[in-house]
Amino acid sequence: MTFAELHRLYHLPLFELLKKARAVHEENWPEGKVQLCTLLSIKTGGCSEDCGYCAQSARYTTGVQAERLMEKEDVMERARAAKNNGSTRFCMGAAWKGVRSGTAKFDQVLDIVRDVSTLGMEVCVTLGELGSEEARQLKEAGVTAYNHNIDTSPDHYPSVVTTHTFDDRLSTIRHAQDAGMSVCCGGILGLGENVEDRLKMLEVLSNFNPPPESVPINTLVPISGTPLAGSNQVDTFELVRVIAITRIAIPGAKVRLSAGRNQMSRETQALCYFAGANSIFYGEKLLTTSNPQSTQDLALLRELGLTAQEPDPSLEAPSRMPERACYPACTPATQAEAAACS
Ligand code: SAM
Ligand code: DTB
Ligand code: SF4
Fold first, then answer.
1. What is the CA radius of gyration of the chain?
2. Is cis: bond before 292, omega within 30 of 0?
3. Burial group, residue 261, by CB count within 10 angstroms (0-12, 13-18, 19+)
4. 54: Cβ below 6 Å to ligand 3?
5. Which ligand is nearest to the CA of 257?
6. 279 has which bridge partners?
7. If you take atom 23 of ligand 1, which residue's CA is the nearest one?
């Protein structure tokens, strides 16, 4: 979608916007299901990057202790528990700038992924920057989706992070797409951005080819000690508008109402589900911060007449739309591939 189209939608009277989003939602997701995803931080803290919102950057004093990569058996125990609790997706996060093929830590991650992928849940990882070889190996080990957020607009990104660029993020996303993994890519509201930045972020996301399989919409969890700790709280109706235009702009994506739910009322979350959210992080912890109790989440779904999505072991990575150029730009290996992408 173009910025102008997103802008027009965003500024509709709220109920008109909700009506449009609801129609798109019902056409694409008619069953009223919500996907429950469990997050686990397999390598916490001590990160070299300076993302201004993050509890895990080594540059800020946030109270998060740096830890080693978790042992496989401990991860498996948490993954089995997540499955028994009803999750259909297990997302493992690592506080790294990125990973390199051939290193002991990457081999250990591949080993973890191979085992987790036997449990019949979607396997998502978020490990920072990837090259094409790392992406290929992760896909081969059993990763279904790679999470790598663009977080905000290209213009606002340098005010939030200086140790890597927006284009670095796009390049990792391209490598994940080329390797055949689904891409989970979204952002954070509340980083001091304006409405135009939010719309520009959605313009980028909605032009991905193939489209992102899921779009996490986080609201900033303020972390004391980080530069963005004092940012203004996101207004409920602005959040609902963003969820609604995400649903309209990327109709086939899971829209995941992500970080920040612990600060949201039940009514706010209900509006987000109505506007098009159909996935949440489930379980009492995100990576380093807290999330609502599972029992509370299940109770809200029940009250709203929504149900948790069952597992879908046949899930495949989305394919490219043939009539559109690859985006982010692909790196074709042969002339034939280049011709197919032009
Ligand atoms: N290091 C990897 C990376 O940067 O992609 C993976 C982990 S990183 C913590 C994953 C995502 O979590 C970030 O891109 C951001 O969208 C989200 N996130 C991190 N801290 C957050 C916070 N305090 N509030 C909201 N979202 C946050
Ligand atoms: C995403 O977009 N949000 C999740 C997941 N992808 C990795 C992470 C949220 C982290 C919230 C802050 C914390 O717990 O440290
Ligand atoms: Fe590191 Fe990721 Fe946190 Fe940035 S968001 S500091 S890359 S863990």
1. 19
2. no
3. buried
4. yes
5. 2
6. 35, 256
7. 221
Q: For ligand 1, is residue 223 a contact (CB within 6 Å)?
A: yes
Q: Tell me the C-alpha to C-alpha distance, in Å, between residue 93 and each of 45, 146, 181, 186, 300.
A: 11, 10, 16, 15, 27
Q: What is the pLDDT along the chain (342 residues), one digit of tens a residue?
A: 999 999 999 999 999 999 999 999 999 999 999 999 999 999 999 999 999 999 999 999 999 999 999 999 999 999 999 999 999 999 999 999 999 999 999 999 999 999 999 999 999 999 999 999 999 999 999 999 999 999 999 999 999 999 999 999 999 999 999 999 999 999 999 999 999 999 999 999 999 999 999 999 999 999 999 999 999 999 999 999 999 999 999 999 999 999 999 999 999 999 999 999 999 999 989 999 999 999 999 999 999 999 999 866 555 555 666 667 767 876 655 454 554 454
Class of domain 3-341: alpha beta
Ligand 1 mutation pick, 39, 50, 53, 164, max ligand atoms within 8 A of CB: 53
CB of 25 closer than 8 Å to CB of 272? no
Query: Structural domain boundaries of the chain?
Result: 3-341
Determine which one of 124, 185, 326, 330 is catalytic. 124
> Which tokens hold the place of 91?
């997302």
Q: What is the reported pTM?
A: 0.94
**Calpha distance 144→90 (Å, rounded):** 10
254-257 vs 307-308, strand pairing mode: unpaired
